[in-house]
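Rotation project, supervised by the postdoc (A.L.). Task for the rotation student: set up a whole-complex structure prediction and record inputs and outputs verbatim in this book. Inputs entered:
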Amino acid sequence: MTGLLIILAAFFLPLFPASLVFNRLAAGIDHPMARLALFVIWPQIGVALLVWGDVAPAGPVLATWATLSALFYAFRMLTVREVGRWAAMLASSAWPLVWLFAMQAPSEVALVAFTLAMTAAPVLMLLVRDALARRLEAAYTGLHGGLARDLPRLSGVIVVATLAAMALPLFPGFFALLAVLSGATLSVAIGVLLVWLLWSWAGARLLQATVFGPRSGPIAADLPLSTTWMVAGLIVVIVAAGLLWTGGAV
Amino acid sequence: MIELQWLIPLLPFLAALMVHLLSARLGKRVARLSVGINWLVVIIATFQLVSYIAGDSGPEWMGLASGWGSLQLDPLSAIMALVVSGISLVVHIYSIRYMIEEPGYGRFFMLLDLMTGSILLMVMAGDLITLLIAWHLIGVILYFLLAHNTEPPTAQRYAFWTFITYRLGDLPLVLAAVILFQTYGALDFPTLFERIAAMPDARMVMDLPVTGTVAFLVALSAFAKSAQFPLHTWLPYTMEGPTPVSALMHAGIVNAGGIIINRFAPVFVHSGEILHLLFIVGLVTALIGSVLMLTQNDIKKSLGYSTMGQMGFMIMETGAGAFALAIFHLIAHGLFKGTMFLGAGNVIGSARKHDGVPNDPLYEFLVERKSAPARLPWLIIGAVTLIVPLIILVMAHAWVAEDFFQKQGAIVLLFFGWITGVQVLFATHRLDTENPLRMMALIILSFALIVVGYSFVGHTFENFLYPDAAFRTALYTAAGIDAVTFDMLVVLLALIVVFGWMGAYLTKVRRQRVDEGHSNARLTLYSLFSREFYVADVYDRMTASLLDLSKRLNVWFKWS
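Outputs recorded:
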């Protein structure tokens, strides 16, 4: 029973190759709200399976599998140009780390909060994807670069969302990664740090190909001020929640 | 007093927020707000340093919560807070006019304030997580500062290089923090260093020594932040960013490596092998940086490589056990290099109009390499140049510390000081002047003043930074090697230097024949120097291969 639950959970807290299902599903959904719902609910189903089934994931094989899955998707993020797929791969790289955290036998609340912390950045990237697609017809990096010049507000949102995707301080991903690392073995810790490095590399490449560089592409309207404030508010809430959740300690 | 310490990093962050919110309303005047707050930071930092020196309470620590979010007030944080805030203030004032015509004026000052706050947080952090937060932020904010002009592809390219190198440097420090936390169960530095002192021989997985492993990881982090070979490629190429950023980077940010090594001195004191590694990496970096500096024809790039060489020397000093000297060096270098960068734009500007160089004997001697016919007997000059600097150096050091001969690190630095002194005297003895004896006497007097001043200030500074004499000795002891090997290395190094001088002399005297005899070797060296040892090319090739592999994987798995 436990083995079956773990296999089932591997689809929702995606471990390769079960992760292919989530990525196909994410790519197939066109409606923005449906895609957002998928990103928020999908990993929580995996957490629910672990919690309700009282599964305590353990063992070096599962830890290695989760770390390699995270590495695999982080590495592939480097060359993904469609921002929606990029967000899905970020999620596929971040959610396997939930397994590593679950191995430290945290409380149910902590496990749910950790998963949400790992979901925040992909969700923000989905918002970026929709904002880009609405203005530039497609959310492909490298297609319309140099947005900082004409669309400063949208560029600001892209920058902040990407910083969250890189799990930089003070975003929840930073503290979540520290929480995983504090209980990890040396080999797993090195793997997680490599994932972190790849996220940074992929994020910087995304910024280079959207925000920075010479302006190219059609003329588009910037993000309205009210929307910018709303997104800023959302980001403040995410950061504050992350800070509160860590409670001042690892 | 520690409560005031919080204001030092918080005020620049507050300034950044205010600049961002008010820049639309205040326009260019927003810079004055930023400068005003930075003045306040400098005043508080000065007050804190003076109070610390005048008071007798010793280091203090204060945390916001039980886990992380703490600051400390100790000699290192007090002196570095003043240096960082001082340099940042100068850069702020310089930028008011320099950046006036650039787009994103408010954004620039916001980033400058964020950077100042992050560096101040780094030097004053009282626990591992606060240090990690500041350490990460420095790299990120530097990326945006370097990419301030968002359009030129070259600026973006080199900002990206810097960012990735800094990220490479961030992660070893994270691992070091994790190992320390897992082993000693503490986040705050006072408790952590107490436990390390009580249990320095702790072991981790594969029976690795905890202190040695942590020291190695901290060293890796320092190498990336302080542009040590082969992680140096970002530094000379980041000149596309605004000049004030170059000044701040070369005067402050790049020194982070030396600061972090000093912060973890209680770990390095138990890790002799890693100190040797620091010495070797620093030495190689100093040599390569200096050689590449000499081969550049662009003033800013040349300054970049000069910084690399100086950073190498700074790391080398820590490797020799002279931790305080490294801090003294980075402060002196920061002030000097910051001035040069802020002046570089003016020099370039005036040189475009007229060279402005007086055609005097000094110019002919230094630039046109025209020396006067020998007026002093070369044998006497040779003896004077070899002996006088040595006497001055030994006497100056003996004056400040009688036991310095027992410290190998001090002897190494003395040796380098001696070579520098000899170079200066011997290089200048043929300068065209009416009274060569007077000139030589003045040069020796200047040298003596510099050495005595440096020794005295350096010694006082060391006593301030590391008041515990036993700890200072322990650092030098940890950096030492066995006496026979040390003596052999000193002799070997002296021989290399002497042969180098002879080679330089022969090249000058028999230029034609030497050129012919070594043409292939010279060409190889020339191509190595001009391609900067191909390090950046290797990284480019590796990057391209990895991206290609990533693309292939995505195609195979149909982007899912």
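Student's summary: Chain B touches chain A through 45 residues (CB under 8 Å).
Supervisor addendum: The beta strands of chain B are 60-63, 70-73.
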